[in-house]
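Before going further, learn to read the protein records used in this course. The integers have meaning only within a learned vocabulary of local backbone shapes. To see the layout at work, look at the sequence and tokens printed below.
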Amino acid sequence: MNLAISFYLKKSTNEKSIIYISISFRRNRKMITTGISINPKYWDSKKNRIKTSYSSALVLNSTLEKIAEVARNHFNKYLLKNATPDMDDIQNEVKRFLRPDTFKVEFSFADAFQEFLIEREKKNITSFDTLRHYQSFFNRLIDLYPNLTFDSINSKFHTDYNHHMSKVMKFSDNYIGFHIKTLKTFMRWAQNKGYHNNEYYKEMKVIHREVDNVALTLQELDILETLEFSKKDKHLNIIRDLFLLQCYTGLRVSDLMDLEPTNIDYENNVIRVTTKKTKDKILIGISKRIKNVLDRLPDQKIKKIEDQYYNRAIKEICKFAGFDEKIKIVEFRGTKRITVEYPKYDLVTSHTARRTFITVSLKAGVLPESIMKITGHKDRKSFNKYVKIAQNDAIEEVMKVWD
């Protein structure tokens, strides 16, 4: 004796149709709505499952299997007792499983996060570097909470996680804020997919504090231009030139590493770039400084370099250049305000190049709107985060005009 189980669409001509489960035994047939609806074009009528081309097929088909398993297991209980299966009872058991107040897609937090990453990569929603940061965040989260579920994201989790990251790990508010922002993005995506109904994540606040980042001066860029490295450190020549190219173009590191000879239009004296992050098409004029750097690169090709190595090498180069001025940085860890002193070279990263391009251009009198055309910034708020003009410089510039 077997229970016949199949799934089908009701009103399959509609733009969205509900999936039903049909269970039958000895001509006694019961039809139950699963509560799942899809566009009929994604339904495989031969396999009675959702086509794999649908973004949520893996999860939803897994759910259909679980619904069928509930019916099958309850049917088998009757067989074990040598009793005649009660189809009304089996139908009610399936309905209990599917009841809106108790129904949950049993798809693990970890599996869903991997699907989240894969989807964003396939749809080119998120840059490779950001995806890597997302994965790093997830690894740290699962190390800390190996049995994490969607329902675990609550007030207790939030308090505990903030305490661990701030008090135990000593991470800054901005680093913790990035983690919370990532979690909120994922939870919103998962809720839209129907994987959970937990809305606590909407109450989680993302803390962001302004950071005293550094920019290099034109004089410091000139020093970098004239650096001579020993044979042992000759690999630093290419890193130095790539960093200078960033400073002269204002490109993000992801866009710099994607630069090809075909992007460089010498006939019109411009570099043409479609940015990875915002998909903006931007034009950058080829200045003498840019041309000199390009001429130094072998075949004018950008060597692809891993981010962490690139940032370590930049610090090493700036240390070699003598950029050891002491910089005081204010950091926040929870409610605690901490002032930490660093040598300038220790604060220089690939982001410093973009900040340097903006700051040096502004000090030279270039209008912010003109710079934003090159950097691809859409609004002044995000643009201003990159402006690093010292108070003394600001006073001197204003006095030049009004004296």
Notes: The radius of gyration is 29 Å. The mean pLDDT is 86.
